[in-house]
Design goal:
Number of strands: 18
CATH topology of the largest domain: Phosphatase 2c, domain 1
Structural class: alpha+beta
Shape: rod-shaped
Largest sheet: 6 strands, antiparallel
CATH superfamily of the largest domain: PPM-type phosphatase domain
CATH architecture of the largest domain: 4-Layer Sandwich
Length: 420
């Protein structure tokens, strides 16, 4: 223990929480008098003869209160207070200056040094204890604050660990969801299909894909489930199963009377899924969809648009055409009717089915990309193909929106090989 420090003996008064007071004074008589008053009042009392010894004591055992004389050899009382306030000890110490100085300027100087209170010598026991009781209220608030901060720290650490675990699970879910679209680029004879899926968060509600129906035809689909996050992702997982390449699970496929694979007409599939959503699943979720069946020989495309943004055809000449009339989303209106649309993709033509995350992208001025913007992107990148065109489209959309992605972005690109 530093020279000049006298530890107290245990007081006879028993209290639930004994506050520790450090008395700092060069006068032995003054220290003895203060010790008597404080011990009788139930405080644990320690003594220091100068500022250096007091500072050394505070770094090893933090007192609750420091009663310090102003004028001492070496370090003064205000200087000791400043060092304590500057981090010489952990936690808050209630500091009272004792001095024969009683001018307002002196009192102001002492308080500006960081002292909490000021007592003029000679100090009566009643006034001293009254000031200490006032300080007790501040210390109680400090104790409560420390307890609250400790609980907050524990809670934040628990939340941090939970967030880490959640992020790990969501990252894994993102990888699994990316796997739902299968191959990003698939070939069906002279046709190629490219998929783009970029959720706004860890997981999203968009889904694109394709599957072979038979040797002559194949199906493609683009889906956007309402909402975001895990609930939407679970619905896309279910829909991915219903539109997979497996005959046993794919709701669009069946075996005809000749034992050959065939596909239900797009409008029929839309009605079936709508009934299933409203009657069997009975959830608040709905989704938009474009489902198309494409003939590899003739280039005929039969599709249904169920609330999804308009598909766009870019002819080999570069001209862009909108397809469809909108239609009802799946899972909103019972017995909704769906229109089937027919068009032909000639050699060199492209069919783009983009989600509203692309169509509704907004620039900093509040202007949406819309038909004109998407048409301009397709015109600008008309020489690009496959995944290169998909990535160029994302880059252009994000550039338009100032790098902000508010919604899931997905797109499906069907290209027919140009004539030699």
């Amino acid at each position: 223990m530093p020279t000049g420090i006298r530890p107290s003996r245990p007081a006879s008064t028993s209290v639930a929480r004994r506050r520790m007071v450090l008395v700092v004074d060069e006068s032995r008589a003054q220290r003895a008098m203060l010790r008597i008053h404080l011990t009788r009042a139930g405080y644990e009392v320690n003594e220091a003869t100068n500022g250096d010894d007091a500072l050394a004591f505070c770094t090893s055992r933090r007192p609750d209160v420091v009663l310090s004389d102003w004028v001492m050899a070496g370090m003064t009382g205000p200087e000791l207070c400043q060092k304590l306030r500057n981090g010489a000890t952990d936690g808050y110490v209630y500091f009272i200056l004792l001095s024969s100085k009683d001018q307002p300027a002196d009192i102001a100087f002492g308080l500006e040094s960081g002292a909490d209170d000021f007592l003029t010598k000679p100090t009566s026991a009643a006034e001293l204890l009254a000031r200490l009781r006032a300080g007790e209220r501040i210390l109680l608030l400090q104790d409560e604050s420390r307890k609250v901060n400790a609980r907050l720290t524990e809670t934040l650490e628990a939340l941090r660990k939970a967030q880490v675990a959640m992020d790990r699970d969501l990252n894994e879910a993102r990888r699994l969801q990316q796997g739902l679209i299968g191959e990003r680029h698939t070939q069906f004879g002279d046709f190629s299909v490219s998929n783009l899926l970029r959720p706004a968060g860890h997981v999203g509600g968009d889904l694109t894909g394709s599957f072979a129906i038979n040797a002559q035809r194949f199906g493609v689909f683009a889906i956007d489930v309402s909402g975001h996050g895990v609930a939407a992702a679970l619905m896309t997982a279910r829909l991915a199963t219903q539109l997979s390449a497996s005959l046993d699970q794919n709701a669009a496929l069946f075996i005809d009377e000749y034992g050959l694979y065939d596909s239900r007409p797009p409008a029929v599939l839309a009605r079936y899924l709508n009934h299933q959503m409203l009657s069997d699943l009975r959830v608040d979720t709905y989704f938009t969809m474009v489902y198309a069946v494409i003939d590899q020989q003739s280039g005929e495309v039969r599709l249904v648009q169920a609330g999804h943004p308009h598909p766009m055809v870019q002819r080999a000449s570069g001209e862009v055409e909108l397809v469809g009339n909108g239609g009802f989303p799946i899972g909103v209106i019972e017995n909704a009717r769906y229109e089937e649309i027919t068009l032909t993709l000639n050699p060199g033509d492209k069919l783009v089915i983009a989600s509203d995350g692309i169509w509704d992208a907004t620039n900093p001025s509040g202007q949406m990309l819309g038909t004109d913007g998407l048409s301009a992107i397709m015109q600008t990148n008309r020489m690009s193909e496959g995944l290169g065109l998909m990535e160029a489209m994302v880059w252009s959309v994000l550039r338009f929106s100032g790098g902000q992605q508010e919604d899931d972005i997905s797109a499906l690109l069907i290209e027919r090989k140009a004539a030699p």
